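Quick check before the chapter quiz. The format below is the same one you will see on the exam, so make sure you can read both the input and the output lines.
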Amino acid sequence: MMWFNQPGGFGYGYGMMGGFGWIFMILIVVVVLALLFGVFRQFRDDRREHPTLSSGARDILDERYARGEIDADEYKRRRTDIES
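Here is the expected output.
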């Protein structure tokens, strides 16, 4: 009778990677976790770099007023529109 996991048996013995298969599995898990962490961190950083729409519009309006592209009346009117 042939036994599994014995020399000459039909079992897989130590597996395809020998006795060190668990090391490769740990490495795979670490790599996947590192990739997930990197993606999460990238999305978190992207949200910090992009201000909200109203503050971005306000910054553009302030810059246009500072450059003299619009006068004070138009600045006040557009600022009121943005803030409401």
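If your answer matched, good. Residues 4 and 27 are 28 Å apart (CA to CA).
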